[in-house]
């Protein structure tokens, strides 16, 4: 069993922790949000995944993720203690348009968002960027690159996604803890720079 999850000592936040920050992990359907939160969380993550059924076949676009069998229907939740005094709460949003109503509540109180992007499905990212900007969230872009062959140059991604010059872009693999942590660190540094 993973020592980061399930043990009694990791279940509760230490008494010394005085501050908590809420971070959203956002992105389109099947981009790796649940995977990233599971990779980073020090507790067993809360997942609201349900099996995909034939009834949703006309709604859920499986291009780019033909083997996907489950989908998040509400949220993912994980926790990461950064120091003796600070803990991050990670909230993963569902990726389908039919769950957009959840965004308003999830965005409330969030410091910012880590926007996961699939380089093979960049067009699917635009509705998510619109939501992040609608709720006034600062964000960093994490390009979830499972395949090194599909990587685009940062300048191409910036142009394709019409990003502001100060929006950070980082490449990651949501399955890898160090890579996912670097993406989250990039967001935190961006948020600190904007708060200064």
Determine the mean pLDDT: 82
Instruction: Tell me, briefly, the overall form.
Output: globular
Structural class: alpha/beta
* Measured distance between first and last alpha carbons: 41 Å
Strand order in the largest sheet:
2-3-4-1-5-6-7
State the helicity in percent bands: 25-40%
Strand content: 25-35%
Rg (C-alpha, Å): 16 Å
> Segments where pLDDT lies below 50 for 5+ residues?
1-6
Which secondary structure elements does this structure contain, and how are they paired or packed?
Blueprint (H helix, E strand, L loop, with lengths): L7 H4 L7 E9 L5 H8 L5 E6 L18 E12 L4 E7 L10 H5 L2 E8 L8 H9 L3 E7 L9 H8 L7 E4 L4 H19 L1
Parallel strand pairs: 1-4, 1-5, 5-6, 6-7
Antiparallel strand pairs: 2-3, 3-4
Structural features, described:
The chain starts with 7 loop residues before the first helix and ends with a helix. Helices cover 27% and strands 27% of the residues. Mean pLDDT is 82; it is low at 1-6. Strands 2-3-4-1-5-6-7 form a seven-stranded mixed sheet, with helices on both faces. It has helices spanning 8-11, 33-40, 103-107, 126-134, 154-161, 177-195, and strands at residues 19-27, 46-51, 70-81, 86-92, 110-117, 138-144, 169-172. The chain is globular. With 196 residues, it is of the alpha/beta class. Strand 6 (138-144), helix 5 and strand 7 form a beta-alpha-beta unit.
Short description:
With 196 residues, this protein is of the alpha/beta class. The protein has 6 helices and 7 strands; from the N terminus they run H-E-H-E-E-E-H-E-H-E-H-E-H.
């Amino acid at each position: 069993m993973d020592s980061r999850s399930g043990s009694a000592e990791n279940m509760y936040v230490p008494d010394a922790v005085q501050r908590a920050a809420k971070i959203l992990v956002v992105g389109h359907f099947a981009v790796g949000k649940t995977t990233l939160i599971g990779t980073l969380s020090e507790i067993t993550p809360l997942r609201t995944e349900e099996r995909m059924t034939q009834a949703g076949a006309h709604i859920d676009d499986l291009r780019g993720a033909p083997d996907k069998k489950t989908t998040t229907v509400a949220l993912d939740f994980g926790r990461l203690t950064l120091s003796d005094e600070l803990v991050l709460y990670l909230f993963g949003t569902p990726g389908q348009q039919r769950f957009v109503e959840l965004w308003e509540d999830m965005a409330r109180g969030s410091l910012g968002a880590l926007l996961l992007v699939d380089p093979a499905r960049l067009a699917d990212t635009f509705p998510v960027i619109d939501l992040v900007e609608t709720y006034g969230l600062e964000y960093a872009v994490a390009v979830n690159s499972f395949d090194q062959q599909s990587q685009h140059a940062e300048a191409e991604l910036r142009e394709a996604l019409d990003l502001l010059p100060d929006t950070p872009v980082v490449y990651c693999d949501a399955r890898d803890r160090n890579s996912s942590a670097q993406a989250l660190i990039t967001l935190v540094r961006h948020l600190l720079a904007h708060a200064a």
